[in-house]
């Protein structure tokens, strides 16, 4: 409350109000990572970051939403989720005043004004406006998959893919159509379904201009023009436009 900052970095002179904050900062200079994950051996400069990472292995979710009871592995994720209930948008664009529920969303938006992309992949040089996006991209090069399903052990490079996969085990379908009440496990399937109600047809056939609600329907239609039949019966070799048609045909052999 006094604003006093008695802890000073020995390397650059930056001052901090807390000793642990100062030590954390100093480790950026030294590169020291004393906190090691017991499960996979990954090293961290900060103990709390190591503990947070370890929850990916254990599946522990100690933070619970007071509005709906949903549990989270990190306090930040829980706070971000709670804003869906409260409508709070604390992150405001300095250029146009638009407000956002998450800092990442705000930074992504602001980069559209500035065009700035300060985070660069050290493998291929691709630039990003947000550090977390750069880190996520980096896993394509390293093959790192830090998100582990605690039900079956399958590993993922992206947290979003991990969350979607877990719904196969839990049966959770959080995306509900407001018009008919049908529920979906992924936002992608939900958005495709909504377009059936709205008539929004954004996928256009390159051959004849016919428009479709979903990309898969458009691709299936385009095969009528190209004559492509990629699905082949394993019993007799007959080819089909769609996977469904091929499956139906194969049942003839199994009768």
TrEMBL record:
<dbReference type="GO" id="GO:0008270">
    <property type="term" value="F:zinc ion binding"/>
</dbReference>
<feature type="domain" description="C2H2-type">
    <location>
        <begin position="7"/>
        <end position="34"/>
    </location>
</feature>
<keyword id="KW-0677">Repeat</keyword>
<dbReference type="GO" id="GO:0000978">
    <property type="term" value="F:RNA polymerase II cis-regulatory region sequence-specific DNA binding"/>
</dbReference>
<dbReference type="GO" id="GO:0005634">
    <property type="term" value="C:nucleus"/>
</dbReference>
<keyword id="KW-0479">Metal-binding</keyword>
<feature type="domain" description="C2H2-type">
    <location>
        <begin position="147"/>
        <end position="174"/>
    </location>
</feature>
<dbReference type="Pfam" id="PF00096">
    <property type="entry name" value="zf-C2H2"/>
</dbReference>
<feature type="domain" description="C2H2-type">
    <location>
        <begin position="35"/>
        <end position="62"/>
    </location>
</feature>
<dbReference type="InterPro" id="IPR036236">
    <property type="entry name" value="Znf_C2H2_sf"/>
</dbReference>
<dbReference type="InterPro" id="IPR017455">
    <property type="entry name" value="Znf_FYVE-rel"/>
</dbReference>
<keyword id="KW-0539">Nucleus</keyword>
<keyword id="KW-0862">Zinc</keyword>
<dbReference type="InterPro" id="IPR013087">
    <property type="entry name" value="Znf_C2H2_type"/>
</dbReference>
<feature type="domain" description="C2H2-type">
    <location>
        <begin position="203"/>
        <end position="230"/>
    </location>
</feature>
<feature type="domain" description="FYVE-type">
    <location>
        <begin position="177"/>
        <end position="241"/>
    </location>
</feature>
<dbReference type="GO" id="GO:0006357">
    <property type="term" value="P:regulation of transcription by RNA polymerase II"/>
</dbReference>
<feature type="domain" description="C2H2-type">
    <location>
        <begin position="91"/>
        <end position="118"/>
    </location>
</feature>
<keyword id="KW-0238">DNA-binding</keyword>
<dbReference type="InterPro" id="IPR050589">
    <property type="entry name" value="Ikaros_C2H2-ZF"/>
</dbReference>
<keyword id="KW-0805">Transcription regulation</keyword>
<keyword id="KW-0804">Transcription</keyword>
<feature type="domain" description="C2H2-type">
    <location>
        <begin position="231"/>
        <end position="255"/>
    </location>
</feature>
<protein>
    <submittedName>
        <fullName>Zinc finger protein 709-like</fullName>
    </submittedName>
</protein>
<comment type="similarity">
    <text>Belongs to the krueppel C2H2-type zinc-finger protein family.</text>
</comment>
<dbReference type="Pfam" id="PF13912">
    <property type="entry name" value="zf-C2H2_6"/>
</dbReference>
<keyword id="KW-0863">Zinc-finger</keyword>
<feature type="domain" description="C2H2-type">
    <location>
        <begin position="63"/>
        <end position="90"/>
    </location>
</feature>
<dbReference type="GO" id="GO:0003700">
    <property type="term" value="F:DNA-binding transcription factor activity"/>
</dbReference>
<feature type="domain" description="C2H2-type">
    <location>
        <begin position="175"/>
        <end position="202"/>
    </location>
</feature>
<feature type="domain" description="C2H2-type">
    <location>
        <begin position="119"/>
        <end position="146"/>
    </location>
</feature>
């Amino acid at each position: 409350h006094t604003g006093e900052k008695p802890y000073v970095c020995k390397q650059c002179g930056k001052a901090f109000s807390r000793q642990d904050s100062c030590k954390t900062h100093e480790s950026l200079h030294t590169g020291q990572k004393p906190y090691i994950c017991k499960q996979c051996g990954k090293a961290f400069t900060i103990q709390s970051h190591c503990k947070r990472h370890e929850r990916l292995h254990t599946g522990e979710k100690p933070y619970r939403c007071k509005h709906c009871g949903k549990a989270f592995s990190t306090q930040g994720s829980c706070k971000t989720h709670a804003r869906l209930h409260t409508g709070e948008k604390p992150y405001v664009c300095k250029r146009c005043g638009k407000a956002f529920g998450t800092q990442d969303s705000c930074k992504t938006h602001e980069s559209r004004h500035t065009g700035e992309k300060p985070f660069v992949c050290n493998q291929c040089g691709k630039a990003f406006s947000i550090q977390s996006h750069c880190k996520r991209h980096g896993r394509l090069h390293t093959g790192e998959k830090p998100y582990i399903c605690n039900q079956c052990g399958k590993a993922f490079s992206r947290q979003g893919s991990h969350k979607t996969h877990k719904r196969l085990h839990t049966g959770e379908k959080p995306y509900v159509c407001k018009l008919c009440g049908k529920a979906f496990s992924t936002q992608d399937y939900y958005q495709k379904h909504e377009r059936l109600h709205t008539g929004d047809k954004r996928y256009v056939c390159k051959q004849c201009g016919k428009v479709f609600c979903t990309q898969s329907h458009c691709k299936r239609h385009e095969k009528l023009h190209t004559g492509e039949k990629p699905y082949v019966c394993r019993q007799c070799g007959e080819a089909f436009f769609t996977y469904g048609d091929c499956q139906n045909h194969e049942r003839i052999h199994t009768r």
